[in-house]
Amino acid sequence: METLSGSHCLVTGGAGFIGSHIADTLVDSNAVRVLDDLSSGSRDHLPDDAELIEGDVRDDETLAAAMEGVDVVFHEAAVVSVTASVEDPVRSHDVNATGGLAVLEAARREGARVVLASSAAIYGHPERVPIAETDPVGPTSPYGLQKLTLDRYAVQYHDLYGVETVPLRYFNVFGPRNVGGPYAGVIAVFVDQATRGVDITVDGDGTQTRDFVHVDDVVQANLRAATTDAVGEAYNVGRGESITIRELAELIRDVTGSDSDIVHTEPRPGDIDESCADVSRARDRLGYEPTVSLREGLAALVDDHGADD
């Protein structure tokens, strides 16, 4: 994996799912500071050597203190629920778009690089798969629109102000510490259902496809983005492979050795039929290469789940 060493790093949302894994990887060879309001993250996820500032990216004084002396910012703080963004678009916009813009502006003042979490949600219903970064965007939720806004702001901050920015468009991230969310929540649900021996519930006919990428590969992409010269443009982060949700349920049942039945429920309104990342830009310009297979990642997750019981 690409290394970053001797740097002062800030991870916003660093007590959350992806942010805590980034902090874990950085802490051995960098000074790591975490800014998190602990609304969804956990103190238990933080490595011992990371400094925690408990607070909100929207608070100017807190953000300025967290940003002081920082070389690289990994911006993961967000309201990550599509449902929450639909129910309260003003609050989620305030965190995801306005808060993200505040991070970019603070980084501009500090002269720091920003690697930030964008999302495949910006694409909406794709015209084709796999989806390339140059394909049309059409978010179908406030969350997707907010991520698109921040994605575009990041590129503009590079073009206008020379800030080294790298938006990473995450597809369906899964792995330890993910307790649900807009994408990979389905894996947590299926694993829980399979291990308890209850019905595995699939929305609709299960033919919808998703690209599931392990959090270790997302961390790899972040570290490569922190050291690349190819800044000022966005990159898809996925495996570049897709699986149907029905096949995912069958795979999880197999990996867990469960005898759960797979049952189909009503389809979710507005659900996207197909999703798969074209990762050739990240591969060519960042040196990104996904290394954790879906089966391997699921097996480790099931072991983890069993250890927690």
Protein traits:
7-stranded parallel β-sheet, Rossmann fold, 309 residues, alpha/beta, globular, two-stranded parallel ribbon
Summarize the helices and strands and which ones pair or pack.
Elements lengths: L7 E5 L4 H10 L4 E6 L14 E4 L5 H8 L4 E4 L6 H6 L1 H22 L2 E7 L22 H20 L3 E6 L1 E3 L10 H12 L3 E4 L5 E2 L1 E3 H13 L7 E3 L5 E2 H12 L5 E4 L14 H7 L7 H15 L1
Parallel strand pairs: 1-2, 1-4, 2-3, 4-5, 5-6, 6-11, 7-10, 8-13
Antiparallel strand pairs: 9-12
What does this structure look like?
A seven-stranded parallel sheet has the order 3-2-1-4-5-6-11, sandwiched between helices. The protein has a two-stranded parallel ribbon with strand order 7-10. Strands 8-13 form a two-stranded parallel sheet. The protein is globular. The protein is α/β, with parallel strands linked by helices and 309 residues long. α1 (17-26) packs across α7 (215-227), α6 (185-196) packs across α8 (245-256) and α8 (245-256) packs across α10 (294-308). It has a domain at 8-174 and 213-238: Rossmann fold (3-Layer(aba) Sandwich), CATH 3.40.50. It contains ten helices and 13 strands.
**What is the CATH architecture annotation of the domain at 8-174 and 213-238?**
3-Layer(aba) Sandwich
From the alpha carbons, calculate the radius of gyration and give it in angstroms.
Answer: 19 Å
The SSE string, one letter per element, is EHEEHEHHEHEEHEEEHEEHEHH
Please give the share of residues in helix: 40-55%
Tell me the structural class: alpha/beta
Q: What percentage of amino acids are in beta strands?
A: 15-25%
Largest sheet: 7 strands, parallel
- Tell me the number of strands: 13
SS element count, helices: 10
- In the sheet with the most strands, the strands line up as 3-2-1-4-5-6-11
Mean pLDDT level:
94
